[in-house]
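FORM 7B - TANDEM STRUCTURE REPORT

SECTION 1: FIRST PROTEIN
SEQUENCE AND TOKENS:
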Amino acid sequence: AALYELEKEPAYWDAQARATLDAALKLHPRNHRAKNIILFLGDGMGVSTVSAARILRGQMEGASGEETVLAMDTFPYLALSKTYSVDKQVADSASTATAYHCGVKANAKTVGLSANAVAYECNTTFGNEVYSVLRRAKAQGKSVGIVTTTRVQHASPAAAYAHSVSRSWYSDADIPFSARKQGCIDIATQMVTNVDIDVILGGGRMYMTPKGTPDPEYPTSNSRKGDRKDMRNLIDVWLKNKKSHYVWHRKEFDEINAKTTDRLMGGYADMLAHNQVTQMNELIHLLCGVIVRGRIDHGHHDGIAKLALTEAVMFDRAIERAAQLTKESDTLTVVTADHSHVFTFGGNTPRGNPIFGLAPKKADDKMPFTSILYANGPGYVHINGTRGNITMVDYYDEEYMQQAAVPLDAETHGGEDVAIYAKGPMAHLFHGVKEQNYVAHVMAFAACLE
């Protein structure tokens, strides 16, 4: 209420803009080499998602929300990224990952391969490999790492180390016999053999262990048992190197001594618990690395905005923590998304309206509607030819699906540009409207990589 009174006065806006202008005038490009690079990848984090997450974060902190400044909002340099792939107007997470990791646009479903590769055709793999910034950083003696809330073999991190005509060939059990015969290797195996990655934290443990291996965290679960037909334990393969640790729960993670640990692998059966990415940032001092927040995407695909936006807020907190642990003078930090979603919020809502709340007026069908809506997805529920009446529904529920215009099992990606936020050495090279594959080239240039 006090802020609202202030905002009525022109002097408030003039002073705020003046301070912003002064800061802009003092901003100077950092024209030297970056010692560290951190790429924060919000899977599916389009601009509408960032705006809604900003309001949510502010409201979680007791404010109206719109005036809140996210950690990523403070980054001085901004560009737009065109996310289409070689074969798709609206792209998937695999082809886009190849673009921002390897600097080359690609075909849907493929990772770490140029567009000469054809999805699911094993023999088009060989000779079409493209190499990531992470791999090139490792080749020049940097420590490299991947931290993700998804399985570590998911497309978004996989393009950093693997070359596969199918993003879904997680373990050898997922590869058709003919492709195995032609020499195609699963993503989990490539993770421990292609690049010597110093820190790997994420889910997907079952793809690393022999078929039937009980999960350490859920020993009675059948669905989480090991999956590998070749009966290799890839965790053991990775551990053979120097001073390595494998952890699978929070207590072990907390007890790690960064001074004596050169390499760390953390495997979680589930995608990571909410607060773990923040903890993982403690390991940032090791890194030239990639941090992926994958459940923004999962929440949107399920049509559950609360899940997606809560994840986006957690992602922003991880960015904030990283800022405390790094120096802007030697670390290039890049925050971006692989693609957007058909998620929107609107409806003439008043200032401070709960982000998951209703628009103030009823629709033409005399029924209320939430500010947040999806263009398509599982939230399409029509009864007798008319949309559901949400008057008696708890639209603040954790799993509430906002209404959608078109019925689909899973909501789809969006095709519009996403933002790239950057700070640190060479961050000023992110400006204007750019092709998504440009991201990898700036990172490589900033770190003076091949």
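SECTION 2: SECOND PROTEIN
SEQUENCE AND TOKENS:
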Amino acid sequence: MKKGYKVTDVKRVKKIGVAAENLEELIDKSCKKLGFNVSCAECRLYVAEDGTHVDDDDYLKTLPPQTLFILLKEKEKMVTDFDYYYTMIRNSKKDYINTGLAAKDFLSTNFKEKFRVFQKYIAAANDAKTMLSQRTQDPGWFEGLEPSEKTKEQSMSKRVKERMRGYYYKTKSALQSSELYIHTKNGRGKKLVDQFLLDLRKLLELNKYNEGYFNRRDKDNRMCNENGLFECGGLWNNSKCIYDGEHVINPYRSREERIIFQTWNLDHKIELSRSVVPKILEAIEGLAKGKVQCISCEEISSEGFVEADRYYLQIFTSENLKLVHIVCHYKGKHNIQSDVYTLCKKCIN
């Protein structure tokens, strides 16, 4: 099954869309579309966000559709998104970042120290344009964005929707590559998975992809204050960030902060890949086998339903998502689990 990806070169000059079923096809098509005058064997593919080398089909299959890759020629060196954007900011805003010793220290330290130093420069940024909204009022903020993005709030809402779509496609890819989906007799597992995904998609569309999370004008849903200032929520198992006053950012203030905000994560407290998706599969498998453990009455019945809304809350909403600075994004296993959310016919009526 082919998936769609985005691919660019190390200079980010041209970004292309490629549909591919495996790594060889992805590199071959990308090489041709980007106009590389070399053989595919001389090219290497990396994940733009963290610089991970994609060297086999098994790893490629774990990545969601629309993942951005960097295709390198033989002698080119990988540059992650963070280092690329930092260099761009440093070169274009010499009055914004001291390019002397501070920049040297910044580039030579680990991520925690990088962001601690960088935060000092962000704190000194000019607030004069923060509350401006229209493209015509602050054109520099919109540099590199689509012409259709007319206000800062519209642009920030779009960024949330992109993240939500990513979570949906990651879930979809994991479910549709499962044994349950591929090998269940009579295709029942496939039908149940497809129905679950349809229900999940409807809930996402009904709630407009939770676009208000990054929109400072959405009083009911925003994760920031009225000015657009976001604060880190801290590690997944902490009630607040231990770096009091340091892990804050206002992407509405400047283009630089908007770019840096891309490195902030919406962290799943109950992990999507390690816990939520396996429990979804367990729930659907129970339906496929006619053995439904009802979450309400706790009885076992032959028919029932998966509570898609419960999984929707865990995948897409602030009930389980916490906005965190990259330093507070813990990638190890979280000691908290999802559950099998199924209802029997009696309890759903």
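SECTION 3: OBSERVATIONS ON SECOND PROTEIN
The mean pLDDT is 86.
The CA atoms of residues 175 and 201 lie 14 Å apart.

SECTION 4: SIGNATURE
Preparer initials: ____
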